[in-house]
Design brief:
The complex is a heterodimer. Chain A is α/β, with parallel strands linked by helices. Chain A has nine helices and nine strands. In chain A, strand 6, helix 6 and strand 7 form a beta-alpha-beta unit. The longest helix of chain A is centred in the N-terminal third of the chain and has 13 residues. Chain A is globular and about 45 Å long. The N and C termini of chain A lie far apart (45 Å). Chain B is α+β, with helices and mostly antiparallel strands. Chain B folds into two domains: 153 residues, TATA-Binding Protein, CATH 3.30.310; 77 residues, no CATH class. Chain B has five helices and 16 strands. In chain B, strands 1, 2, 3, 4, 5, 6, 9, 10, 11 and 12 form a ten-stranded antiparallel beta sheet that branches. A four-stranded antiparallel beta sheet of chain B has the order 13-14-15-16. Chain B has a two-stranded antiparallel sheet with strand order 7-8. In chain B, helix 1 crosses helix 2. The longest helix of chain B has 16 residues. Chain B is globular and about 60 Å long. Classes of the chains: A alpha/beta, B alpha+beta. Chains A and B meet through helix 1, helix 4, strand 2, helix 7 and helix 8 of A and strand 3, strand 7, strand 14 and strand 15 of B.
Chain lengths: 282, 297
């Protein structure tokens, strides 16, 4: 099975252009268990159910008690210690395109787990993803320094959905995010501080997936930006902002992608000349 | 009847329903599919000012029912006072409601009243603060070298309480077209059983009397509040649970995202409301742990 999984994953990856038009491939990475192996807390018991809700909206199936019109191909769905920090780093070799679970393998990657809020963030603050891998130690990824997503960095990611603590602080967004767009289309996250943080929630990701998937004719299929503005403020402290960011060859394209691009649009990869972001706060 | 067996999709051109939208509603005794669809068309028009053309289709799927065309959607849940409206063209136009932000709040309140929401349950109608920016990227350094404003459309949010009991999961979220009709609306305001409200009030009393939440490793208690939680708007089931809602913050400043746990009166953890009837979501991976690999930089 270990040998088959990478091959199956590769099949999805090798045809991103075909899959992207209607059925983007996707992965979920959810980390709820931190205390037992890494000694930091709290545990986040809703992270794994949140990822499961996303998969039900994107893929459906008997396991969800529901079907969906247009199931998205699922590449990997690791939880807890099987989500690794290297999955988010564009380092030597194939870290974030690792065939067993890199975040740059599919067209869509949803991460749920810890991040780090600053108190308060400044223009030079960094944004982080914090996992607790099988190596039994906390693994921190500095997004601005090490995450590079999309075709220009040898990957495939088009949509990065980071449901963590303050991974997209507004005051420092221009220092941390533009360089991550190497073919990436749109990314979502939160801005806040230690007193204004996201709460562990099974609903936030599930509702976001419901609004982005287009898999139920009786639910609106919103753009990534609109869906995150609608769902990103579920279960957050007052003062937390849901943030979406996109790039484009010119200003109009960047704004259009930020406001209107859907995961099923099948658009080509953008050129990063302009960057547009918007936010809404609770 | 299981949700899966409810998954019978009834879809039909809306010619009948559209015709009915211009005519009086069918009598309540008429339980035909056509009459049901015509009532949906009437609801869309009367509650939210939405009119469909003949290309629209009526559809029912599990606990959802509604009408949609290429650019317009009205749907509702049959197990909850929950409505969705989406005007794709108005949403993409990005033009702010000409009536201004105060009028957007008035529209929100008006829509709630039309949907049958008691005025006493409406809490904190407000425009969510937000903004937008646009920056040119230096091709060499990848730094943003110029920033200017590029706002998004304002959103109105309304929360809920019943007799002083917060209903954490209910809300109205609304943006409006330039003409003052809903561009996007999620109105999720399910009927709450009186017994649930009564239990939530008992839980409020427990909290006032000093109820102590269970400790969580690596965390400190930040807030404790009793109220009601229920399944979100876009879900296949509707769980409604009175709970004590406890937020735990990390004891380490190096780790963020707070835990959110629900408890009953005995201090036993309550499972969060479901979205799907079962939770065996599709999984791409084998049950065995991921193969350990060499640490990458």
């Amino acid at each position: 099975m270990k040998r088959i999984l990478p091959v199956l994953s590769l099949l999805f990856v090798l045809a991103p252009a075909v899959a992207a038009a209607a059925t983007p491939s996707y992965s979920t990475g959810a980390v709820g268990s931190y205390m037992a192996n890494c000694g930091v807390g709290p545990d986040l018991p809703a992270a794994v159910p949140e990822a499961a809700n996303i998969r039900c909206w994107y893929s459906g199936g008997a396991g969800c008690g529901s079907t969906v019109a247009n199931p998205f191909p699922l590449v990997t769905s690791w939880n807890d210690g099987d989500v690794w920090g290297s999955d988010f780093r564009d380092g030597i070799g194939t870290a974030d395109t690792d065939s067993s679970g890199g975040s740059d393998l599919p067209a869509i990657y949803f991460y749920a787990g810890h991040g780090r809020c600053k108190n308060p963030p400044t223009a030079t603050s960094r944004d982080f993803i914090i996992v607790c891998g099988n190596s039994r130690k906390t693994d921190v990824t500095d997004i601005g320094a090490f995450s590079r997503w999309g075709s220009a960095s040898g990957g495939h990611l088009q949509f990065a959905f980071i449901d963590a603590s303050c991974p997209m602080d507004l005051v420092s967004i221009t220092n941390n995010w533009p360089q991550t767009f190497q073919g990436l289309h749109v990314a979502t996250g939160h801005s806040g501080d230690q007193g204004h943080d996201t709460l562990d929630s099974a609903s936030r990701g599930g509702q976001f997936a419901a609004y982005t998937s287009g898999n139920n004719a009786l639910l609106p299929q919103l753009s990534v930006g609109d869906a995150w503005m609608a769902a990103g403020l579920i279960d957050v402290d007052p003062g937390v902002c849901a943030v979406v960011i996109a790039v484009g060859a010119d200003a109009a394209e960047a704004v259009d992608r930020r406001d209107n691009e859907r995961v099923t649009d099948g658009r080509g990869d953008p050129v990063s000349n302009w960057c547009a972001w918007r936010w809404v706060c609770s | 009847m299981s949700p899966r067996s409810l998954l019978c999709v009834v879809s039909m051109p809306l010619a009948v329903a559209c015709a009915s939208a211009r005519a009086p509603q069918p009598p309540a005794s008429d339980e035909s599919v056509a009459a049901y669809d015509a009532r949906n068309a009437s609801l869309a028009r009367e509650l939210f000012g939405i009119r469909f053309d003949a290309s629209a289709r009526a559809e029912s799927q599990a606990n959802f029912s509604g009408i949609h065309s290429d650019d317009l959607l009205f749907s509702r849940r049959i197990d909850s006072r929950t409505y969705f409206v989406y005007d794709k063209r108005a949403s993409q136009a990005g033009v702010e409601y000409g009536g201004g932000r105060d009028q957007l709040l008035q529209l929100a309140t008006r829509l709630l009243q039309r949907a049958g929401v008691p005025a006493s349950e409406i809490v904190q109608p407000r425009i969510l603060q937000g903004g937008g920016r646009l920056g040119a990227i230096d091709p060499r350094t990848k730094a943003i070298v110029e920033v200017k404003s590029a706002e998004g459309r304002p959103l109105a949010l309304v929360n809920r309480q019943i007799d002083g009991v917060p209903v954490f999961s209910s809300r109205l979220l609304l943006s409006a077209s330039a003409e003052g009709r809903p561009a996007f609306m999620e109105l999720h305001w399910p009927e709450i059983p009186k017994a649930a409200v009564a239990e939530a009030r008992r839980l409020q009393r427990l909290v006032r009397e000093g109820w102590k939440p269970p400790e969580q490793p690596g965390a400190r208690v930040e807030t404790v509040e009793a109220g009601i939680v229920h399944s979100p708007a876009a879900t296949w089931v509707m769980d409604i649970v009175p709970v004590i809602r406890v937020v735990y913050a990390s004891t380490s400043p190096q780790v963020g995202m707070k835990a959110l746990l629900y408890y009953d009166r005995s201090g036993i953890t309550v499972t969060p409301p479901r979205e799907f009837p079962v939770t065996a979501a599709p999984c791409a991976n084998a049950a065995k742990p991921r193969e350990q690999k060499q640490q990458k930089p």
